[in-house]
Design brief:
Layout: H1 3-10, H2 27-41, H3 48-57, E1 61-62, E2 67-68, E3 73-74, E4 80-82, E5 87-88, E6 93-95, E7 100-102, E8 107-108, E9 113-115, E10 133-135, E11 140-141, E12 146-148, E13 152-153, E14 158-159, E15 164-165, E16 174-175
Amino acid sequence: MSDDDARASARDLSAYTGTGIDRGRPMWVRGLWLMVSTSILMRWWVPNRVRVAVLRLFGASIGGGCIVRPRVRIDMPWKLSVGDHSWIGEGVWIINPESVALGSNVCVSQEAMLCSGGHDPNSPSFERDSSPIRIEDGVWIAVRATVLRGVTVGAQSTIGAGTVIASSVGPGHVVIRR
């Protein structure tokens, strides 16, 4: 049996406790958010100003001049902050059990994913291991790129299409999947 097989057979998801999860709002608010987000944020015909207003209503901090395109999925808007003149492209998914902060003039392109949540692969019960994400000013996260928990992407950096970022990137870097 390989080490990977031994780890997989040792995992016991029935022992999962979910300790350390702070969803930040009561169940009824999260349920209301699910209903509102699927009926408003997802629709192409809803004006941008309405999408932004709804995100703010549910606790997101959204700067001036921001564009939030249709089909954007945000798990917990109360754990999202966005600076001025930033764009969140169509089909972006923000999974944020921990905070996600976008600076000003940030472009998160179509179908990109920002995921501040995760699990500890060494935990037999697969417990949570989540950390905030910080995207600094002027960053471009290109189409279908993924930024994982605990990452800071430095100012004026570019994360290329389809790239997976699992560790922080310094300012002014261009990271391209080859």
